[in-house]
Write a structure and sequence with these properties.
- The protein has helices at residues 2-17, 56-66, and strands spanning 24-29, 35-41.
- By secondary structure, the chain is of the alpha+beta class.
- The protein has a two-stranded antiparallel sheet.
- The longest helix is centred in the N-terminal third of the chain and has 16 residues, at 2-17.
- The termini are far apart.
Length: 73
Amino acid sequence: MTCRRSRRAVDLVTRRFGVPLYARVDLVRDDAGRSCVLELELVEPSLFLPQAPPKSTARLVSCLRSSGTPRFA
């Protein structure tokens, strides 16, 4: 059931905005033991670019441009 809920959350985003480049779904159990989506993260808030090799930013931009995401085209 937990995998199904995660998949449904990502599917909803995909239908609305297209396939995300990154997605993380955090689930918790409610008082009845059912899994609930706590957080759907679509953007990594810290890409650790300051700790990454020098060409990492250029590589990220290249990946975003090649993804077909309109705002990076």
